[in-house]
Amino acid sequence: MKESLGVAKPAPTTWTSKLLQAAKLPPTIGMKELLQAASRPEELHKAFASDFPIESYSAIIVSHYGNTPKDYNMPEQYRALQGFNDILPDEQSYWRLIENTAVQVAELYGYRRIETPMLEETSLFRRTTGEGTDLVEKEMYSFDDRPDKEGKYDNLTLRPEGTAGVVRAYLEHGLFKWPQPVKLYYISAMFRHEKPQAGRYREHHQFGCEALGESDPAIDAEIIALLYQFYTQLGLKGIRIELNSIGDQNCRPAYIERLKDYYRPLLDECCDDCKMRFVKNPLRLLDCKEPQDQPKIAAAPKIVDYLCEPCREHFAAVQRFLNIYDVPYTLNPLLVRGLDYYTRTVFEFLSAAGGRTEALNGGGRYDGLAELLGGAPTPGIGFGAGVERISRELKKQGVKPPAEEPLRAFVVYFERTPELKDAAVQVIAQLRRAGIKAEMSYGDRSRKAQMKQANASGASSIILIGEDELAGNFVTITEGRKTWTKDLPAEGLEAERKQVKVERDKLVEYLKGL
User: Fold this and answer.
1) Does residue 215 share a domain with residue 116?
2) CA 160, 392, 225 angle in degrees (round to 5)?
3) How far apart are the first and last CA of the chain?
4) Residue 497 CB-half CA count within 13 A
5) Are the C-beta atoms of residues 350 and 186 closer than 8 Å to each other?
6) Most confident range, picked from 219-228, 266-275, 278-287
7) Against a cut of 0.90, is the pTM above it?
8) Is the omega angle on the peptide bond into residue 181 within 30 degrees of 0, that is, cis?
9) Do 233 and 114 fall within a single domain?
10) Does some domain include residue 379?
């Protein structure tokens, strides 16, 4: 325990054992009983009948079990919120691979990056997503902002999805005046209060693309081809694309009535969610995952049989262009989107690797969204792909990200003197300014500890600075990555590794020539 907390150091193991025995605490005591025992040190002290400080009993138990009693006077250790994850350094190589590939492919297709605010007015998402949906009613992080001087305030929401903010920015900044289509991409954090599970978190990140201002079916094919190239360029295998058309405001209402006629006599046999969907959002009846409803879904009328002629021609053209792009796909007449502003093309990407099919992401055309936000009728199509889910799929398929740039040099100084440490920092600064990845030991460690750290670093060159090097304005460089068997760069080390003396002002040139 830390002395600054006013706690005596833990007793030796023998004291711990005796204390546990005196307190009648078995070695396999449960945490509940442990905390109860640790919260009454006076009783333990009396039972132990010794002059050992009362304050140390809890410390002993903590030392023995590695946990802190709740009412012990120590700061609580904080943890990340449920569903919110730290992205640690070892994970960053996967994220860097995903982001670099996303940027490269998106910009190859002519998409330009946009970042919208993390906070938007709640009404933006209520209007685009719809009242009564799970996203609006259960999953959004919404709160009242601080009131202004007049007592007025806005209700704000952490961004749950990317499309609404992009379309809002398109309208607000007059991007509709640009040459159309305006093609945008983003890599941003999203927030949804839903049950955390593998690949799905309350804070998650999405790579998304949106093409606004053009209804040409070639754009639909382009954005699907972009996403397919993204996944294949990452190295993922077994990518499947499912494709469908859900019509538009001209032909979809008739289909929905036909779907309701089909389901009406079957409602008593449907799950409770489907009974609600029948009233609120009939298209989502086809989204049900309950086993009891699958035969009904399979026999339901197919929307492609009810498409009007313009929608039929559009869908046929999308397929033709996908064939030209050489992008494989299968038609899924049951693939739908429940929101009214979605029109025509919808698609979903799945991974069939490993014998189990899992959804990666979906997308679709949303020609009615801009009007909901007060703009003129504006066609659009887009997708959002979860970075966490993609990272998980990369690991599942054994795709390794590129290795980090190896350490080129590690600087070791032999004596704990200000002059030698200054020289080490000067060399480090010289190398880094020249673009050479270099590291040194900190904390004035011993020569042996520095050599051990240098060897463990995997550096291709170890730069040694001692009194002779300082006096002669040179450094000694040891090449190679063989294991150090000597703790000092002395006579025995010559046989272990080749050493080269290099003048300080020629060090960068020498290392770049290796």
Assistant:
1) yes
2) 75
3) 49
4) 23
5) no
6) 219-228
7) no
8) yes
9) yes
10) yes
